[in-house]
C-alpha cells in the first residue's frame, strides 16, 4: 500500500509513468526526466508525442538513450537545485543532455553550473526542443510504422490524464516568477480542449484533471470567444467548458481555481452529481488561497486580497449549494512581514473554513521575485515552527472530516492493485496530493481505472479504508 505523507510539496506532479516498449533494431532512443508540476508533465507528454511520431523510441532511464531531455522546474530555489542535480546526474550517466522547462528561461544559470549541456530551451518551446533532438540524435523513422498518426503519449497511468487548458498567468504575485517564465495568459479555444478531452476518454481515460496557472481566468485573453464544437458554439469560459466536459462520461476535477465571484456558477454543476455514464464535474475545488490575513495577502499582491474577508462567506455559499463539495488549498507560512498575529489569523481562519485537504509551503526567496526585496523576512526557525503548527491544525481538521465519513458509501476509482490491497481514491481525492482509500479484502479482481462504490469502515489522518458493497 502507498500513502501520501503530508510533507510532500503540493505542487508536484505524479512520478512520470513510462510504458517501457522496447525499441526496434536501430531505432533512435531518447530518455526523459520530467520534474515539477502537472503543467510541466503535460509539456513532457507533448514533447514525447512529437518524438514518437517522428520515429523515436522513449527510454524510461539513461541506459541505451541517444540523449536525455530534462524538463526542469524553477518555481522555488529548492526546485532549481533539484533540477540542477537531475541535469548533473543525466550528464554523468548519459553525457548528451537537452534542458527544457521553466528553469530553461534562465539559460545562463544552467550553463554556469553545467556548461556541457547540448541545448537549453524555455517552457513549452517544443520546436526548439525538437531541433536540439534532431541535432543530437538524427531521426530514422520507419515509414510503415512511425509516420502514421498515433495516440498521444501519457506519462500518467492510463486511467487518468491532465488536461491543460491555458498557459501563463496575468497576475503579478510578488512571490512568484511563473509569468516571467511562462508568459501572460494564453487560453486554448474551447473546441480544441474538448477534442483532446474526448480523444482521451475514447482511449480509456476515466478521470480528467483540468489544470492551468489560473483556471478561473480561462478565456479572458480571448474575450471568451466561442468556437464550434459538434453542433454548437461553446464559449471559451470555465463555466461553459466545464459543462461540456461533464458530458463526456469521465470524472472531471478542477485545479488551481482562484476564488473569483463567477466560480459560484461552477457549484451547481458539481451538485448535479454523476450522470448515467459515470461522468460529471466532481464536487471538488482546488483553490490556492495562500493566506487568510488581508495585510499578508496585500504584501503578496494576491488578486483576491481585497475580497479576503468575504472568502468564508463564499465557502459557506458553495457548501449550501453542494454540501458534498471537497475544498483543497495551499498556503504559504513565514512570508516576509508575517507577524505572529497574522499567522494566528490564518489558524483561526482554518478553524472556521474547515478545508478538507491542505498543503503548505514555507516561504522561500526565488531569484527574480519581488518578495525578495520586502522587509522583515521571517527567521528559518520561526517559519519551521509555524509550518509545524499549521500542519498540526490541518491534520486535526482532516482527521475529523474523514472520521465523519465512516459508515458512508463513496464512489472510488482504483489507482493500483498490489498483493496486500487495492489503492483507490474517492471523488474527494486528487492523485498524489490528497489521500487514498484502501481495500484489503476481496480486491483481487479489481484493476486500475475501475469505478465502483465502497462502504467506509475506518479513517486515519489522511486516508480511508473500505469494503466493497
TrEMBL record:
It holds the Pfam family UPF0004. Residues 1-26 are annotated as: Disordered. Residues 403-469 form the TRAM domain. Its cofactor is [4Fe-4S] cluster. [4Fe-4S] cluster 2 binds at residues 169, 173, 176. One of its GO terms (molecular function) is protein methylthiotransferase activity. [4Fe-4S] cluster 1 binds at residues 37, 73, 102. Its EC number is 2.8.4.4. Coiled coil: none annotated. Transmembrane segments: none annotated. Keywords: 4Fe-4S, Cytoplasm, Iron, Iron-sulfur, Metal-binding, Ribonucleoprotein, Ribosomal protein, S-adenosyl-L-methionine, Transferase. Residues 155-400 form the Radical SAM core domain. It is an enzyme of class 2 (transferase). Residues 28-138 form the MTTase N-terminal domain. It is found in: Cytoplasm. Gene3D superfamilies: Methylthiotransferase, N-terminal domain, Nucleic acid-binding proteins, tm_1862 like domain. Belongs to the methylthiotransferase family. RimO subfamily. Catalyzes the methylthiolation of an aspartic acid residue of ribosomal protein uS12. This is Ribosomal protein uS12 methylthiotransferase RimO. It comes from Meridianimarinicoccus marinus.
Amino acid at each position: 500500500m502507498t500513502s501520501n505523507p503530508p510533507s510532500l510539496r503540493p505542487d508536484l506532479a505524479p512520478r512520470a509513468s513510462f510504458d517501457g516498449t522496447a525499441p526496434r533494431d536501430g531505432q533512435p532512443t531518447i530518455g526523459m526526466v520530467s520534474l515539477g508540476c502537472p503543467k510541466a508533465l503535460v509539456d513532457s507528454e507533448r514533447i514525447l508525442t512529437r518524438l514518437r511520431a517522428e520515429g523515436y523510441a522513449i527510454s524510461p532511464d539513461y541506459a541505451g538513450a541517444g540523449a536525455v531531455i530534462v524538463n526542469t522546474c524553477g518555481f522555488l530555489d529548492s526546485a532549481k537545485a533539484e533540477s540542477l542535480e537531475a541535469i548533473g546526474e543525466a550528464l554523468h550517466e548519459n553525457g548528451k543532455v537537452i534542458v527544457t522547462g521553466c528553469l530553461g528561461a534562465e539559460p545562463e544559470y544552467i550553463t554556469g553550473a553545467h556548461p556541457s549541456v547540448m541545448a537549453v530551451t524555455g517552457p513549452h518551446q517544443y520546436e526548439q526542443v525538437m531541433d536540439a533532438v534532431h541535432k543530437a540524435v538524427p531521426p530514422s523513422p520507419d515509414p510503415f510504422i512511425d509516420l502514421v498518426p498515433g495516440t498521444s503519449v501519457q506519462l500518467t497511468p492510463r486511467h487518468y490524464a491532465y488536461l491543460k487548458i491555458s498557459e501563463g498567468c496575468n497576475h503579478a504575485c510578488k512571490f512568484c516568477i511563473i509569468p516571467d517564465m511562462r508568459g501572460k495568459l494564453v487560453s486554448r479555444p474551447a473546441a480544441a480542449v474538448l477534442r483532446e478531452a474526448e480523444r482521451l476518454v475514447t482511449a480509456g481515460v476515466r478521470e480528467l484533471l483540468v489544470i492551468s496557472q489560473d483556471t478561473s481566468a480561462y478565456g479572458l485573453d480571448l474575450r471568451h470567444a466561442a468556437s464550434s464544437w459538434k453542433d454548437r458554439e461553446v464559449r471559451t469560459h470555465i463555466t461553459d467548458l466545464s459543462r461540456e466536459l461533464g458530458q463526456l462520461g469521465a470524472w472531471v476535477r478542477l485545479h488551481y481555481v482562484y476564488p473569483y465571484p463567477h466560480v459560484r456558477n461552477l457549484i451547481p454543476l458539481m451538485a448535479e452529481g454523476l450522470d448515467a455514464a459515470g461522468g460529471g464535474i466532481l464536487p471538488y475545488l482546488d483553490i490556492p488561497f495562500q493566506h487568510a490575513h488581508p495585510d499578508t495577502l496585500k504584501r503578496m499582491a494576491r488578486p483576491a486580497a481585497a475580497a479576503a474577508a468575504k472568502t468564508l462567506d463564499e465557502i459557506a455559499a458553495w457548501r449550501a449549494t453542494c454540501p458534498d463539495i471537497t475544498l483543497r488549498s495551499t498556503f504559504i507560512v513565514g512570508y516576509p512581514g508575517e507577524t505572529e498575529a497574522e499567522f494566528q489569523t490564518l489558524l483561526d481562519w482554518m478553524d472556521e473554513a474547515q478545508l478538507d485537504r491542505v498543503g503548505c509551503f514555507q516561504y522561500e526567496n526565488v531569484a527574480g521575485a519581488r518578495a525578495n526585496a520586502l522587509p522583515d523576512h521571517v527567521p528559518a526557525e520561526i517559519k519551521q515552527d509555524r509550518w509545524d503548527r499549521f500542519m498540526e491544525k490541518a491534520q486535526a481538521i482532516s482527521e475529523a472530516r474523514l472520521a465523519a465519513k465512516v459508515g458512508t458509501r463513496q464512489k472510488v476509482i482504483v489507482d493500483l492493485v498490489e498483493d496486500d490491497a487495492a489503492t483507490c481514491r474517492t471523488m474527494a481525492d486528487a492523485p498524489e496530493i490528497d489521500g487514498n482509500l484502501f481495500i484489503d479484502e476481496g480486491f483481487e479482481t479489481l484493476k486500475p481505472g475501475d469505478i465502483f462504490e465502497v462502504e467506509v469502515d475506518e479513517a486515519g489522518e489522511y486516508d480511508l479504508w473500505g469494503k466493497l458493497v
